[in-house]
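Dear H.,

Thanks for agreeing to be a second pair of eyes. The structure we're designing against is below in token form, covering all 243 positions.
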């Protein structure tokens, strides 16, 4: 048998694989509740955000079900019920973990905001303002303002005039549309949480318009720290719909 190319696995995939194997071996029976995130993190020697990413991956693939306010339960995959049909979903090998992605964005987009504060022209800050207005209009209609959000961050990086940075941020946003992020957002993104994010965007915009690089960096860091916290909140604070 020829050797196969070895590819490094993302941490959340390694965690998911361990849990998947335990479920398949009967360690966790169908209908049973998995240990709490903090306990799994301690046993595995990893962070709670990495465990959360793994659990979301297992849910997308139809191995577990997150029941907000209760816990994460193993699905019975022996039957052909509706929940079992979700086992058809697969996570692309290149999919980034949502919480890890936010941390990477903090590093990169913090410096992008600082650079934009030094270089942005009137047309750039006007584009940021229009994006915020679009986000606010969507929120007022109870629509998640993802398009305006992307337009805002795109306007910031375009102010830097660096195609590598522009394509990097576009890559971040392409991953934002992936199944892991969409499922996690389904639990924790609400119109109220987006209103908080809009206020954070306004602070970033104000700092860039004032040409205050330090304040722009700090405002972007605060925004992405808050985003990470929103997605890391207790399952008890998640939406009951879960979708």
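And this is the sequence the design step returned. I haven't edited it by hand at all.
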């Amino acid at each position: 048998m020829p050797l196969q190319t070895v590819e490094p696995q993302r941490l959340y995939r390694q965690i998911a694989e361990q849990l998947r194997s335990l479920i398949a071996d009967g360690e966790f029976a169908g209908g049973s509740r998995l240990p709490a995130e903090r306990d799994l993190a301690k046993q595995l020697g990893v962070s709670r955000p990495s465990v959360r990413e793994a659990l979301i991956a297992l849910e997308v693939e139809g191995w577990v079900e997150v029941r907000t306010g209760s816990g994460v339960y193993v699905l019975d995959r022996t039957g052909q019920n509706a929940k079992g049909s979700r086992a058809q979903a697969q996570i692309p090998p290149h999919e980034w973990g949502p919480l890890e992605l936010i941390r990477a964005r903090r590093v990169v987009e913090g410096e992008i905001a600082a650079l934009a504060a030094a270089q942005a022209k009137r047309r750039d800050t006007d584009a940021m303002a229009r994006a915020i207005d679009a986000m606010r209009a969507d929120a007022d209609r109870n629509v998640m303002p993802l398009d305006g959000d992307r337009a805002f961050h795109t306007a910031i990086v375009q102010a830097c005039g660096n195609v590598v940075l522009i394509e990097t941020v576009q890559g971040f946003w392409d991953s934002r549309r992936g199944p892991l992020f969409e499922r996690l957002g389904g639990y924790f993104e609400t119109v109220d949480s987006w209103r908080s994010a809009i206020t954070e965007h306004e602070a970033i915009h104000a700092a860039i318009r004032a040409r205050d690089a330090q304040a722009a960096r700090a405002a972007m860091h605060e925004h992405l720290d808050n985003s990470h916290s929103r997605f890391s909140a207790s399952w008890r604070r998640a939406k009951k719909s879960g979708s």
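Two observations from my side: DSSP finds ten helices and two strands in the chain. The chain has two domains: 11-88, 98-233.

Warmly,
E.
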